[in-house]
């Protein structure tokens, strides 16, 4: 199998087949569509090269430029890709929905997340929270028993998705909620498709919790420094070097009040 030389996606499915360019590069259908090629160009790919496609995508707006800059370090199927270098995740546009578009989310904006199966919360976690509903193991981990454990299950799953609650979303629609979808149609729970979706969902949940935990740790040193500074000013107050009013002002400044 080949990989698209723009987005890196494996070209092995009908909607990703794409085409081969004149310079030997291979590009998937999704990237070709985002390059805004004319009808004649789509039928004469041999006359184009990879830079023509990149320029076309870059010219399609901010989302196109983000796509070119994005470099996935981890992919969980076609549902979600993670870029640890730029600290962004990508929810790729659905090949089934021409109105859908690539969604980019900054790691720092992830506040709370929930894994939903047929609308019911299976497990949840986020910034300042422990992962509820399952245990983690391994470096990237997995949620043990989160999706299938505990309750009597139906034989078919209609939807499986992760709901992301964003603190400061960085997109033109300013949406507070985004979804990562693993199953979007009735799927038998004894099928390989369902089991694969469960695996990707578990891996994604674990990755999201690790991201949130790392961001919590990054914020802790600042909190410690602020506490130490408040104690220093309190000592100055106790020694009569500063007044009660001056201490109150400094304390508010450090706490951001």
Would you kindly provide a written description of the structure presented here, covering whatever features stand out?
A hairpin with a 3-residue loop joins strand 5 (74-76) and strand 6 (80-83). The strands form five sheets. Strands 11-10-9-13-14 form a five-stranded antiparallel beta sheet, covered by helices on one side. A four-stranded antiparallel beta sheet has the order 5-6-7-8, with helices on one face. A two-stranded antiparallel ribbon has the order 1-2. The protein has helices spanning 29-34, 39-42, 50-58, 62-69, 192-238, 244-255, and strands spanning 2-3, 10-11, 19-20, 26-27, 74-76, 80-83, 88-91, 103-106, 110-117, 120-126, 129-132, 156-157, 160-166, 177-183, 187-188. It is built from six helices and 15 strands. Among the domains are: 1-69, no CATH class; 217-255, no CATH class. Helices cover 33% and strands 23% of the residues.
